[in-house]
Design goal:
The complex is a heterotrimer of chains A (327), B (444) and C (327). Helices cover 43% and strands 11% of the residues of chain A. Chain A is built from ten helices and eight strands. Chain A has a six-stranded parallel β-sheet with strand order 2-1-3-4-8-7, sandwiched between helices. In chain A, helix 1 (11-36) crosses helix 2 (51-58), helix 1 crosses helix 10 and helix 2 packs parallel to helix 7 (216-233). Chain A is globular, with a radius of gyration of 19 Å. The termini of chain A are far apart. Chain B has 444 residues and is α+β, with helices and mostly antiparallel strands. Chain B has helices at residues 92-95, 100-108, 114-118, 150-158, 177-185, 200-203, 225-240, 253-263, 274-288, 332-347, 422-437, 439-443; strands at 3-6, 16-22, 29-30, 35-40, 45-49, 54-59, 66-68, 72-77, 243-251, 294-296, 301-303, 309-311, 313-315, 318-320, 323-324, 361-365, 384-397, 403-416. A six-stranded mixed β-sheet of chain B has the order 9-18-17-16-12-15. In chain B, a hairpin with a 5-residue loop joins strand 17 (384-397) and strand 18 (403-416). Chain B is elongated and about 90 Å long. Chain C has 13 helices and 14 strands. Chain C folds into two domains: 2-183, Rossmann fold, CATH 3.40.50.970; 196-322, Rossmann fold (3-Layer(aba) Sandwich). The relative contact order of chain C is 0.12. Chain C is globular, with a radius of gyration of 19 Å. In chain C, helix 1 (6-20) runs parallel beside helix 8, helix 3 runs parallel beside helix 5 and helix 9 crosses helix 13 (312-323). The N and C termini of chain C lie far apart (43 Å). The chains are: A alpha/beta (327), B alpha+beta (444), C alpha/beta (327). Chains in contact: A-C, B-C. The interface between B and C is small, with 12 and 8 residues.
Chain lengths: 327, 444, 327
Amino acid sequence: MTTKKKSAVDRDVLIGMYKQMCLFRRFEERVGLAYTKQKFSGFCHLHIGQEGLAVGVQSALRDSDYMISGYRSHTQAIGKGIAPGAVMAELFGKVDGCCRGKGGSMHMFSNEHNFLGGHGIVGGQAPLAVGVGFAIRYRNQDNVIVCYMGDAATNQGQVFEVMNMAATWDLPVLFIVENNRYGMGTDITRTTSVDHLWKRALAFDMGHSDVDGMNVLTVHEHVTELVEKMRKDKKPHLLEALTYRYRGHSVSDPGTYRAKEEVEDYQKNRDPILGLGRQLVDKKWATEEELKAWDNEAKEKAKEAEAFADASPQPALEELWDHVLVP
Amino acid sequence: MAEVIEMPKLSDTMEEGGIASWLKKEGDFIEEGEAFVEIETDKATMEYNSPVEGYLLKILVPAGKSCPLNTPICMVGEKGEKADVAPAAPAKAEAKASTPEAAAPAATAPAPDKKAETEPAKAATVTAPKSPASPSAEASSSTDRLRASPLAKKVAEDKHIDLRQVSGSGPGGRVIVRDVEQALAGGTSTGVAKASPALSASAAAPAAPKAPAAVGDFEDVPVNMMRKTIAKRLLAAKNDAPHFYLVRSVNMKNLSAWRTRLNENADKDKRVSVNDLLVLAVSRALIKHPEVNASWQGEYIRRFKAAHVAVAVAIPDGLITPVVRNAHALGAREIAAQTKDLIGRTKAGKIAPEEYQGGTFSISNLGMMGIEHFTAIINPPQAAILAVGATIKTPWVGSTGELEVQERMTMTMSCDHRVIDGAVGATFLETLVSFLEDPMAILS
Amino acid sequence: MAIITFREALGQAISEEMTRDANVFLMGEEVGLYNGAYKVSKGLLDQFGAKRVWDAPISEAGFAGLGIGAAMVGLRPIIEFMTWNFGIQAFDQIVNHAAKMLYMSGGQFNMPIVFRGPNGAAHMLGAQHSQAYESMITNIPGLKVVTCSTPYDGKGLLKSAIRDNNPVLFLESEMMYGMKGEVPEEEYLIPLGKGDIKREGTDVTFIAWNKALHKATEAAEALAKEGISVEVLDPRTLQPLDEELIFASVRKTHRVVIIEESWSFGSVGSQISDRIHKECFDELDAPVSRVTNEFVPMPYNEAQEERVLPNLDRIIAAAKEVLYIKG
């Protein structure tokens, strides 16, 4: 399904993607570490391994486009523009968090950056995305909304309901299924009737495709093409992105449901960061030393984010009464 | 750590004390040395000054309850401090129970010791763990709880009505506001008294221990509402009103003669009784002595301008005192007619509440039953009652110094000393005797 | 003043607000071409066109969520449920998304949306179509819950609900749509959160709303013939509740009967009762009494249904109970 055109992406853009992926990786590693150090608690779903998709999609969007996601969305939020420190502070429940400590790991929001939330009910964000698509059409804008969901969300009833509506009414929603093959601990083949999740779109006569989510450049080019088309025809699209998470479903997941070798294979042979790094070196657009330096930069940024979050004060206890209703 | 304050020894013979009232409520600050609770000892009700300073965290023995010496009665400590509830003092009644549950807290509370005797005011710190088995000091048998709606309680408090004197018409005898309003208006089916503070004594009285019943040994007669009311009111009267008694005997010769004249040619049902003439004389004496025709109202004494004379009437299951209203303005025959009507309807159970409410003085006459003389309990809120004995032929030294046989009647007036002093009562009785011995004086 | 039906009054409210604000749109099953299942939206499609009056597929979760997403980006949706019995299909969206958005985003996303439809039993509609939902939906922070019992109230309250920046769940009644009442020609609003004394009285307060209010009024009239003066109080907004109005009435009458179509366990009535006992304890001459649906699913049989719902006999008996009138 993926188009195989020659890349028109230049060196700076690629290096930018590389740096961003490094940041996402190092950020999430720090998050995982902070969690084990008990700097915060609750659920914590890491995105490590899936950076290629996040960066590839983000780089295809405008600031005015909307994004909405599930509960594994720390780095997507950063990609949409929220400062890493604000995301880390939110994880720590601090007042400088992007939701003043009210949201937490699963609920990153930024109205300013059109990031409409991490959502904790599997598939629950899909109707919201279609509502945003509806508003875009209602106002005759040329924005789009990207709606991330996990593979398991495609079995949620309300997702079907709104795909039908989006397709019926031509609402500019790009549904991106991050197929990391496991809905929590359940291999999707055990719960899903179709072998490819893009086939869900067939029921609604909706545009569909799949993409190698481990290849940031491929993702970038494909999504760019989809989005540009969508700005004009407003038709929704279901993109199945094949990806893989290295870590468990959440921090507390030992990952016993899959072979260690499987994880190692992805890490060695299909890793999006290693992949782009090799490309950059091959094209002689970067040296190994530069890659190392950029990675160190990313580590530094992640460290800064954590320091920012550490330094941020707790919100006042009385704030718990705020934001229940608009006065 | 919160301090536990125990029941102090405030008299040499005191073994247990009652909480008359809490002068502070939970959450209030108490200065060291400040009076914060009133304790009823076996001798007096005394203010107790706090041995410590701090906030009253928890009251363990509520007002109206009693407990043995050294039983924790409250906890005092820092504001907001968690009052580690020490085993609550078992209320007096419960303390007598011998179940292990009831006995347990006593074991964890400090035993009475030398220290407690010599330094009664010093509170010991109790670190006993909270025990789920410890009975709450407030737990009392639900049957002796006063049942009243919150509104009824509030109105009663505002209007100084003692709810224990009001019988409840709600479910389970709950006193509802209607009952209080009727009481205020001066009539309930079972009578009501103005509030007086002293009922706490009866409230704190220990419940009678349940004796093992042997079938056939006795009969338990259910206590009806009237009996309950009599019990409550007369107990209250005896507790509240300091009674003293004045006794006079009267030569009935002239009164009998007058009565004979009055009843000449009268139909049988229109005859005037001695009692009717007593009512007449008493009513006139009351008008002359308004300080006796009076009522204790706590903050003031109310003196009545009219004489409403209540006459005690025995009925099969109790006693009712119908009132001859404005007796001072009625003639002998009118009083006789009214009394006859009232007594007749009382015995028939057809008397309305307002007809036995509002008396200002009572007469109880057991003369017709051969009683020579007796003392009666004041019928509150009245200030006096006259107990009238039989008219008996008696050897008597007459005014001429000769021993003669006279028809004499002995009467005893019970007076509420809060209202009536001895001399005042005596002066009233003197007037009454003069009326009875010379009925023409009544008319003058 | 014009005399119009309840459905006309509600339709006027929607029409006026759609005229006033281009961000307001109506979506629901059969609201457009069919003119509404109960004809509340009659004429709106003609007046505003298909862009603003949307016939939705039978996908309550989907179109409720669509409304929530649209509200996140500034539209002001009116989502009609043909009945609240269908609306519970959308409870995930209402409870997990609409009610939480402002809060978990730390105050970033308002939720100006109205969900409306008939509530409670109609007549012989059986177990799945006869439920009253106020007790469930008032239990959730972040939602306003509004009921209406007269055409006048319905119009004024619905207009306020549409202008409110919070999610408002608006409860109507099939049985009342045809009821006629006076509605002023000129514009008016009834503030949310304010109850109304529908009938003044001194002996006992009846608290009732929605359709049950009329049962309560009927009982009040019957009791008036026995010399009992009943105050009838309609809280109108159940969340937030106009507690002051209720307390003032209790202080006046000292006796309360709450009449509701909910089941008794953990209901709005039990909440009101709790608040009265807490705040007006010393004012009560009797425990608060409640007349609710019997705790069974709604039977179809006519006599059985009548027996399950609060009826005149039960209301009068409850009133006499709190008045200590025997027989």
